[in-house]
Amino acid sequence: MGFVHPTTPRPTLLFAIGSDDPDAVRRVLEAGEAHATDTAGPTGQSALEFTLANTQLSRRLDIARVLLAFGAQADEEGEEVLGAVDPAMRYYLRRAEADLARKASALIHRSFFRPLTRMRYELVGQDRALEQLFRVLSMHSQQLSVLPVVVLLCGPSGHGKSLLARKFGALLDVPTHTVNMTTLRSAHDLWQAFSMTLYEEPTTCTLAEFLVNNEGKRCVVVLDEIEKVEEKTLWSLLMPWESGRCSFEASSRPIDVRNVIWLGTSNVGHDVVAEHHAARSLPDEVMSRDEYVRLMNLVREPVSKHMGPSVLSRVTTVLPFVPFTRDERTAICAEAFHTLGAQMVSHLTTDAFDALISSVLESYVPSEGARSLYRAVSNQLVDL
């Protein structure tokens, strides 16, 4: 048997990176054919450093995010690499090494929910919301709570609520059923609702059929725009959210829904979040855990008025999504420029690109979130 140098890279990962396809890299890592901490390239660089240094890759930043999501170590790259990449990647590299991210991820490190830690490289901001979510899932995994998991994502539009709900099931590799609550008029409509989302194939399966088909199994139900229905329409959720049992009609047998993760999205409480944000002395700093807990409690009041106290009492946690910090807004702008106009900005110097981002940041509207930045980026690209 010939001698193999210990730093010889695994060719599958090297080839996946070289294909300039983030999905190919993800498949290799998910299959266990390689690890994100493996070396790559002829000089024994880490896979992350090799990717960031390879300017011939048009999607190197997307590939780097995949590597980070699967555990690549950002601290090995040093300040030299940090300075060589754009603001979006600097944001993700620093986030990977932040104490808050590490401590929060440790909460579900050994549980079924561990893949959700990759959400930090899909979603900009909302560090405290993710931390609280991981705490709830940790309690559920350790059987420290007997109730089903019901999470309400609330707050201003455009700050990642729908993105988190959409990615949740995909990251866990479990089935998801998304109900557009704006179309419902009764509890019967709820159970007969088809899954409706722009990111899924059309389905002929109703929510009732989905729950029967996945009885006793881990799955996700997303109730989008949950505040748009009357309170009495939600009363049919009281039993499944309380006992983990669900009956669609008085004469039907109850089915086991204890392993369903219920996610609701809502703009309720956006005014409370806005007032809280305006009163902060350091609005561009990530808030402390204590400050976020106080905000969670403040938001429960408007949620109770919309959904009713009996429904809210069965919600495991209410997670307010908050306005972005300046670093987060900068990362969103940089990503948007690369996604919408990669070739148009590729020739810009670092200073010119930073100036372009700065001009877009002035268009940020907290009540509209990332959408206001995407609109401003599109306008800037038209003028380039």
CATH topology of the largest domain: Rossmann fold
Please state the second-level CATH architecture of the largest domain.
Answer: 3-Layer(aba) Sandwich
Structural class: alpha/beta
Biggest sheet details: 5 strands, parallel
Summarize this, please?
The chain is of the alpha/beta class.
Please describe the structure with a list of short key phrases separated by commas or semicolons.
384 residues, 5-stranded parallel sheet, two-stranded antiparallel ribbon, P-loop containing nucleoside triphosphate hydrolase protein, disordered N terminus, single chain, 3 domains, ATPase_dyneun-rel_AAA, Rossmann fold
Describe the protein:
With 384 residues, this protein is α/β, with parallel strands linked by helices. The protein folds into three domains: 11-99; 122-320, Rossmann fold; 326-383. It contains 18 helices and nine strands. A five-stranded parallel beta sheet has the order 4-5-8-3-9, sandwiched between helices. A two-stranded antiparallel ribbon has the order 1-2. Strand 6 (245-246) and strand 7 (255-256) form a beta hairpin. Residues 1-9 have low confidence and may be disordered.
